[in-house]
Amino acid sequence: MAGLSADGVRAVVQLQREKGRRHLRLLLGWEVFDEARDLRRSIELDVLHNSLVFAAEKGLPWPAVAEVGKLTEELLTDTQGLPISEALQLLHDKLTLCEPKLSPFKACCVCDYFCNTFIRHYHLYQFVLCQERDLRQHLAHLEVCGPPQPLPLMAGTEVEAAKHQQQLAALSAAEAQKRTDMLLLQERLHWEKERMLQRVYDRVNAQAETLDRKVLESMVREAIRTQIEAVHEILQTEIQTTFEILDLRLQKKTLSLNPPATHPPPPSSEDRAKSTKAQVQKKKK
């Protein structure tokens, strides 16, 4: 900071904050550092930059602004490990040495500035500047995927219309599923019926030589009962499924007859011409 010129501090102050900090780092000869990982260096740069901005805003000449920056750097370095009473005495001594370059009023303003900033938070600065940080940071490289290319606006669908279409599609899918379930049940019952009849036939063949009329009648009644039960279950399922399909169709019909309200289309060229003509005639009247 001792070699910092008046032109250098003027350039730092006249730049925006982030650009000014970067320019100040270059003038100080510091290497590029990570603001998050090297917090101590970042705070030192903030303190130095803030002191230059303060001195410039108070109207100090540029050589005096550079002198305030030098004083700030010395305070950050020389007060490390000192109690606050000794830090105040050190600040007083350094301001006394700077009085030839600063008017008494300006020296008082600079003293107030350091008391309200550096001395006020002295213990916090001591904690940051005198103790090493225990870095426990994990770096992860994340891939950012951009959004897909949107479709043309004319190919889009209004939100309510899209919901309406989804409801119709869901009802159609439910109806198709009902029909599929009914066919699967019919096949299963048909297979059960064939299995029961085959079992009856096997019993008849096994007792063909000793089969009497009563046993045969019993087997026939059992076969008929099996057929009736299968047909009854099929009919009952078909009736229930048919009512459910009709209910789904009724819901689809109701939705189709009550589509969502859409925004009116833009007026055609003919409509605009008629509107313009009507306005002209109205003005003539």
Structure description:
The chain has 285 residues and is mostly helical. The chain folds into two domains: 125 residues, no CATH class; 100 residues. Helices cover 72% and strands 0% of the residues. Helix 1 runs antiparallel to helix 2, helix 1 crosses helix 3 and helix 5 packs antiparallel against helix 6. The longest helix is centred in the middle third of the chain and has 48 residues. The model has no long low-confidence stretch (mean pLDDT 81).
The H-and-E topology, N to C, reads as HHHHHHHHHH
Helix content: over 70%
Radius of gyration: 46 Å
Percent of residues in β-strands: under 5%
User: Biggest sheet: strands, sense, closure?
Assistant: none
Q: Unreliable stretches, pLDDT < 50, 5 or more residues?
A: none
- Mean pLDDT level: 81
Number of strands: 0
**What is the 3D form?**
elongated
**End-to-end C-alpha gap:** 83 Å
Structural class comes to mainly alpha
Q: How many helices?
A: 10
The number of distinct structural domains comes to 2
Region (Disordered): 256-285
Pfam families: CLAMP
Produce the secondary structure layout.
Elements: H1 6-14, H2 17-28, H3 39-57, H4 62-78, H5 84-98, H6 104-119, H7 122-130, H8 159-206, H9 213-257, H10 269-284
Helix pairs in contact: 1-2, 1-3, 1-4, 3-4, 4-5, 5-6, 8-9
